[in-house]
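Job type: complex structure
Entries:
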Amino acid sequence: MPAVEFQSVTKTFGRDKAVDDLSLTVEPGRFTVLCGPPKSGKSTLFRLLVGLEKADGGRILADGVDITDLPPGGRNFGYVPQSFALYPHMTVFENIAYPLRLARAPSAEVAKRVERSAAMLSIGHLMKKTPDQLSGGEKQRVAVARGLLTNASVFVLDDPLVGLDYKLRERLMDDLKHLCEELQATFFYATADSLEALTMAQDLVVIDDGRVVEKDDVLDLYREPRFARSVELIGFPKANVWNGTARDGVVETGGLRFALPPDVPDGTVRFGLRPEDVRLDGAGEMGAKASVRIVEHLGSEIVVYLESEGMPMTAAFPSAHAALPEIDAEVRIAIDPERIMIFDAATGERIGRAQPHKEAVAHG
Amino acid sequence: MVKVVIDNVTKKFGDFTAVDSLSTTFEDGAVTCLLGPSGCGKTTLMRMIVGLETLTSGRILFGDKDMGGLPPRKRSVGMVFQYPVMYPTLSVEENIALPLNQDRSIDAAERRRRIDEVLDVLDMRDRRGAFIGELDAGSRQKVAVGRAVARRSDIVLFDEPTTNVEVQAKLALIRAFKLVTSRLKQTIIYVTHDQTEAMTLADHVALMRDGRIIQYDTPQHLYAVPETEFAGWFLGNPGMNFVPARRDGDGVTSALGGGVYTPERPLDDAAEIKIGVRPEHVRVSARPRPGAVAGRLKDMNVGIAGRSIIRIALEDFEIKAKVDGLDGVRPGDAVYVSADPEWTSVFANGTRVGAAMKESAEGRSTVDGA
């Protein structure tokens, strides 16, 4: 049984459909990440789940029980909101304990649970401090500790690391993964950062315009995406996605020439190509000339932003595999046609992969 | 063009020492990133260079000229802030023109030329008439970059200009920055906590911690040869793994196998010894092999450029590896792990004591027998 299930849920603010006839299941014991651009509906979906917003239509189930009309207090979720507030006049201990105090829990029980929660986030030494004595990262940990305090089996974390130093985020990402393992709980986590999503997720949900684009195991979603929008939104560096025109089953675009599968009709088609599938080492049959615009050395990877016949193209590869190209250099890019994903231009749905064409090089 | 010399500078706020007896030189015509976590003193150092903060002791020189007592407007410094002050009712062009209008040595034709050049490099020619209020955060920052460099001041300082910009706009901004700086050759000091940004933008990186520069290096060398565990962890995505190790005669053996390492410097008897190995230099296989240690695959995720990032549980610690294969292995399965000895550093009490590392050698995670 899914830990959480949304059935055709809609939420409108004025004319704006924040969540649009959305259906989604979240599996128990999994770390599920909801990833989409800002204002794609992530926070609204979470607020609907924990009962801070009321759905205009559809049903929300937790462990198979309909909770659509339950007040927030009747729902059992650990929740870390995106903009959390700590009470400035209370100690860290009291800030974390607040939900239990509201529920009039006995103080021995409060102490035990606050301690456990604080220990998981390594903030036991901060208990007597007040929020103004904490760094940004420490405050964030306090907010997460408060969210983890409940005996819930589902934890809802709305972009809890946004705005933190990158390295602190890396550490907290590790902590949260360990927590999910330790508690054997369901984590439902939102972020707009696709690399964070790819790093954290077991299951990845791509959300856009208040709708689920697709949901899958993170590796499957990255390798075999079913929609062009997933390719655009998920992956670092950003994938190459562009439109081209097929004539007699052949496409010429950006200096490349390749064939479409036989069942794809001529006309406009959409292409998706991961940066790691654009090679600069000369291997591969289908090639084109390109000029180097920007080279980014990221330590273990190199990202090269190119232009081929006016078309921008991004390549990325492990830094040990190739020499660093110079800016403005002319290079040959090589692509295995079968790495090019083909999508229906109207629906964005994947309809296949490109095929080699007997004259692989369109120009020169 | 002018270099910036920091001569034994200290800055205290009450009992707190934000910048601690710091000396360094920012070379002219180069981009230097001040990199470090929140609270390391990087912003304070920059504010002292601009003249927004007084020094508790020490000197700051531009070339050979002591800046002591000079107010910000008397220093030839352009600055781009985290939250730039922009005039929402003025156009992109008018915002960039503002500092130029105040400089009487620039005539109208020259002003026009410089604005065109900046708009060109920023790829914003077609937005020149747009009002600032109509732009997204990334484009506003691009205009701020344009305004700071159009003045052609000797020194331009950037204070985390990409902090409030969403990821894709950030990349566009970084690209614009690279184009602008490679053309205009000013002395650039760029403050950031983002190591990827520093690796991408900088000619030199000054890595800061607790008010001091702990390593000043080229990005690649800083990445390959971190002098401290902190530097190894701070650079890298994810950072370096640190594995418990112990003395074995004159050498060091680690819980990751791989034989005996001989450090370049003698080891203190009481030192806490670890070996450091970057995730891309961890060798992982699905089958046992000589020298490899058995572990259990915890999970597999996706990193930069689609490489698999895996976590492996070993006896009493956990490491991360970046691999380009390893298909068919599932979480919970046994895997066999070793460190690429060429790319392994030995640390004693947090400081690098050397290893058999070759900077220019080819190194990568390899996968056998999956």
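Summary: DSSP finds eight helices and 22 strands in chain B. Residues 167-184 of chain B form the longest helix (18 residues).
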